[in-house]
Amino acid sequence: MNNDFPIPDNELQRLAALKRYNILDTLPDHAFDDATKLVSYICGVPIAHISFIDENRQWFKSEIGIGVSEVPRDISFCRYTIMESKMVEINDTHLNDKFKNDPNVTGGFNVRFYAGVPLTTPDGYNIGTLCAIDHVTKQLNESQRNALSIVAKHVIAQLELGTKNAQLDAQKKIAEKAVLARDSFVANMSHEIRTPLNAIIGFTDLLAQTELDEVQRDYIESVQIAGENLLLIVNDILDLSKIESGNLAIDSEPFNLKKTLKHAYDLLKVKTQKEVEFNLFLDAEMPDIVVGDQGRLNQILVNLIGNSLKFTNEGEVTVSVKKVEETEDNYKMKFSVKDTGIGIHKDKLTTIFERFTQAEESTTRTYGGTGLGLNIVKQLIELQNGEISVKSEPNRGSEFIFLLTYKKAENKETAPKPISKNDLGHLKILLCEDNILNQKLAKSVINNFGFDLDIAHNGEEGIELLSQNKYDLVLMDLQMPVKDGYQTTDYIRNEMNSSVPIIAMTAHSLVGEQERCYKVGMNAYVPKPFKQSVLLKAIKTVMNPNNEVIHKRVVNLSFLDEMACGDPDFRRDMIGLFIEKIPAQTAQLEEAFHNDDHDTVKKLAHNMKSSLDIFMLEDLSNCAAVIEEEASAGEFTSETLDKVNILHCGIIEVVKILKEL
Fold it and tell me: pLDDT per residue over 34-50, tens digit each?
């Protein structure tokens, strides 16, 4: 260590305290720049700075009138200031024995006046200085001295805040990892449950299409209902996972509101007990077509009406829908589901919307159910900016009321074309699937369509068969031994240079799975358990080259709009900045990653993360967080590469959408 300067007794602890703030060599920061401007203004000086002193240099976090980022410690005035417990003020350096011959007094910065306040940490270590400097002699008044001390305390408070935020960020990352682990667990569990369920529902559907006597048909219908109920429970758990991780998107498409309500009514009428009258009342002024999420409305209605029918043994269940408000752009609709069932005790009314909660302990045993339904209903309604309430009395019945606002549709509904029977001629299809039941089911369904099917038990076998035969189409399970669906597709596209259409088939329902399928080169995605019509539609879509499907992500600008406070210029500027900066940063990050430059990758990923959060791109922000973490650990893995690739593809997609805006 250079000893041309005085060294504090606690130098090692002082350096440790400085290191703890991670402030050295960081980028400029408004909070510190503002403090420096304030010092210059209060003291009326041309030179001011906030600096930190390590083993052998004085590094300027913020400066006015200096023009360099650091100077050697042994030529700095501040090497003496950090030895003091209070402000050092030199009114005229020419009269000061210590400084009169200093190069920065006789020349250099021409320092004639110097005032420096040590920056003291809460535990008493002087890690740097806050200074005011002039080319003429000067004397500060009491107010100026007080102001400098206050600004110095503010600088330390800012450092402390930064440390606290870093700790919070670390905790947040741990929490995010826990959520990812939980989501992954839920998805894997759903995969394990859905795989056999897929076979049960599929074979039952096929069996129902054969010649059956009345008793057999009755049994088959019972199995179908049980299968559908089990699927509902699995879907409830998955929906809950998606809602919690902020990944459940609400659609905004035109749909026929009256038809949707009648469909839910017809669907549930068959489950109504003989002693119960089931009514549907629709307001005469109700619109036919509205814009919103038809699937989620159906889910809410089926859940609420299903509950009422389940808990009502006699009397009636009445569903009524009314238009309560109309503006130039929207309709506000009030939905009511009223019954004469067992009712709910007053003290339970506040908790029935909580998860795994039911009005009575015995309810689950008597009536069945997960205790998730009402929790999901409430969250789905709130995700659509609606509200739900309940009125109830034990043994008198209940009424659930919810309000939803739908946009008006611009055009009248165009009737969707029904899926015709197979008009694709004779197709030869390869199925990559390791589950025997699913193989058998797919074979039966594909043969029903009039196509030929070959089966590979894993990706390696699939590649082998593809290299030997010509196929029109590949159905690809994602989870297989030896080579999974992603690796196999990657090989088909990049090693075999084949453009054979590939449809992903998976019982996984993790958010982002579809996007990843398209990124790796698949052409369509069919979730299991698959409906025959959905599979046929996917086959028709990929076999028709003109029918190119656009897989478009939705960019949520609600946080940006909130920040804009109604200023369209701010919103436009922010979008412009994103389009200009983020792709360039992504390219720099990729280059730094390939050069194994951990520091640059860490800085870029950290900076990008905050931009991605503003645009609520949670999946890409999670990628950036993983990249930053791996860079901090100083070791890149195959997961880092995967996340860099996903980030690259995602940014391209987002920029395209933002440009259209």
Answer: 999 999 999 999 999 99
**376-422 pLDDT tens trace:** 899 899 999 999 999 998 889 999 999 999 999 875 544 444 444 55
How many CA atoms lie within 13 Å of 605's alpha carbon, on the beta-carbon side?
Answer: 27
CATH number of 10-140: 3.30.450.40
pLDDT, residue 244, reads 67
Signed CA dihedral, 93, 95, 97, 100: sign only? positive
271, 373, 397 from 236: Cα distances, Å: 20, 7, 25
Burial 648-658 (b: 16+ CB within 10 A, else e): bebbebbbeeb
Q: Give residue for tokens 């003429």.
A: 136
Residues 6+ apart with CB under 8 A from 535: 445, 503, 526
Q: Is the pLDDT of residue 361 over 60?
A: no
Q: What is the pLDDT of residues 326-351, one digit of tens each?
A: 999 999 999 999 999 999 888 888 88
How far apart are the C-alpha atoms of 478 and 100, rounded to whole Å? 77
Which residues does 196 contact at the CB level (< 8 Å), separation at least 6?
A: 437
C-alpha 59/C-alpha 630 separation (Å) is 28
CA angle 207, 208, 210 (to 5 degrees): 70
Domain 428-543, what fold? Rossmann fold (3.40.50)
Structure confidence at residue 511 as a pLDDT band (50, 70, 90):
very low
Tell me, what amino acid is at 629? Answer: E
Q: What is the pLDDT of residue 414?
A: 46
> Is residue 382 a contact partner of residue 362, using CB atoms and an 8 Å limit?
no
Which pLDDT band, with edges at 50, 70 and 90, does 475 fall under? Answer: very high
- Domain 557-660, CATH 1.20.120 — does that match? yes
CA 191 to chain CA mean position, Å: 22
On the question of a common fold for 253-408 and 557-660, the answer reads no
**8 A C-beta contact, residue 72 and residue 56:** yes
Q: Of 14-18, 190-194, 360-364, 513-517, where does mean pLDDT reach its minimum?
A: 360-364
Nearest to 463 by CA among 431, 485, 492, 484: 492
Give the residue ranges of DSSP H helices in 245-390. Answer: 257-269, 294-310, 363-367, 373-383
pLDDT in tens, 120-159: 999 999 999 999 999 999 999 999 999 999 999 999 999 9
Q: Give the span between the Cα atoms of 201 and 461, in whole angstroms.
A: 28
Q: Which residues contact 120 (CB under 8 A, 6 or more apart)?
A: 85, 126, 127, 152, 156
% pLDDT > 90, the chain: 46
Where exactly are the structural domains of the chain? 10-140, 253-408, 428-543, 557-660
User: Can you point out the beta strands (E) in 91-180?
Assistant: 113-120, 126-134
CA atoms within 13 A on the CB side of 85: 3
Residue 133: beta bridge partners?
Answer: 47, 114
What six digits make up the tokens of 639?
């997961």
For residues 632 and 527, the answer to whether their CB atoms sit within 8 Å is no
Q: What is the dihedral of CA 508, 510, 512, 516, to 10 degrees?
A: -30
Spatial separation of the C-alpha atoms in residues 367 and 273, rounded to whole Å: 14
The number of residues in the chain equals 661
Dihedral (C-alpha) 11, 16, 22, 25: value to the nearest 10 degrees?
30
Selection from 147-151, 224-228, 368-372, 638-642 with the highest mean pLDDT: 147-151
Q: Which CATH class is domain 253-408?
A: alpha beta
Q: Which residue has the higher pLDDT, 348 or 427?
A: 427
